[in-house]
Automatic annotation (TrEMBL):
GO MF, one example: hydrolase activity
Protein name: Nucleoside hydrolase
Gene3D superfamilies in the record: Ribonucleoside hydrolase-like (3.90.245.10)
Claim: Cytoplasm is one of the keywords in the record: no
Stretches assigned to the Inosine/uridine-preferring nucleoside hydrolase domain: 4-299
Organism, as annotated: Virgibacillus siamensis
CDD domains the record matches: nuc_hydro_IU_UC_XIUA
Keywords of this entry: Glycosidase, Hydrolase
Amino acid sequence: NRKIMIDCDPGQDDAMALMLAASSISNLRIEAITTVAGNVDVDKNTRNALRLCDLLELKDVPVAKGASRPLVREMLIAADIHGKSGLDGTAMPEQPVKQTVRVHGADLIIEKLLASEEAITLVPTGPLTNIAMAIRKEPGIIPKIREIVLMGGGTYGNRTPAAEFNIFADAEAAKIVFESGAPIAMFGLDVTHQARANAETIEEIRAIGNPVATAVSDMLTFYLNAYQGLLGRTSAAIHDPCPVAYLIDPSIFQLEPVHVDVETKGEFTYGMTCVHKGVASDHVNAKFAGKLDPKKFWDLFYRALTTYSS
Ligand code: BDR
Ligand code: CA
């Protein structure tokens, strides 16, 4: 089983990423969950991560609260999509039973990597602040990172025409991560926009009938309504499960070697990921996911949900 650590800002789609990783069809062992300011502030994101651990019965996985703001820029949130709590729309209890461990998220990432004999895969589904902090604080972790399989960026944006939310929310951190030399697999908007949920998806998930499936269909209902209200869309991309789905079944996705630079200076392009395809192999710093097979993706997603007990 591949060891992973999930760094997240849950967030309805982060919640679905956790659900996939924790399901019994997953070949992944979750070593830790760390949280970061992103969709909402870090305290709310942390509370949501703990509530999700209760729901998914992740009793032994340590959860640590991480960065409360980006490295350099001011904080930016996305409560318009995810609701005030960051995870509106579900009937999950407001207060979690599970508690955090009393160590900073970036420190937990460092501790776990240094203590593990085998390299660990990092799965960031929020802004990259904690990962950048960990790399700066202890560069000795880099050889212990098997791969950073992240949701972020793309060849176009959603927060601005140029920038995707996770990268835009802390571009300085993203720059540190992409320049770190650690192997990266990038799941940006080009591919996550192919994982679209609509009203029919919600009904199919609700029909599964177990409490996890019910919570996911409630979250999707809220999420889809937000997209409909804000952008007039009848379907919504569920971004964050993509990197996890890749780790469970890489054959769902097509990736190619690229070089990625992160823009941190542009007046209109701050947070843009400049994806250079077809570069010489010594210039490659990431694998770029461009395509997914929607049928295979949704089959995996539904299968994962059916494994939870009723
Ligand atoms: C990303 O932004 C967040 O709002 C989502 O959770 C996802 O990680 C998509 O741009
Ligand atoms: Ca997220």
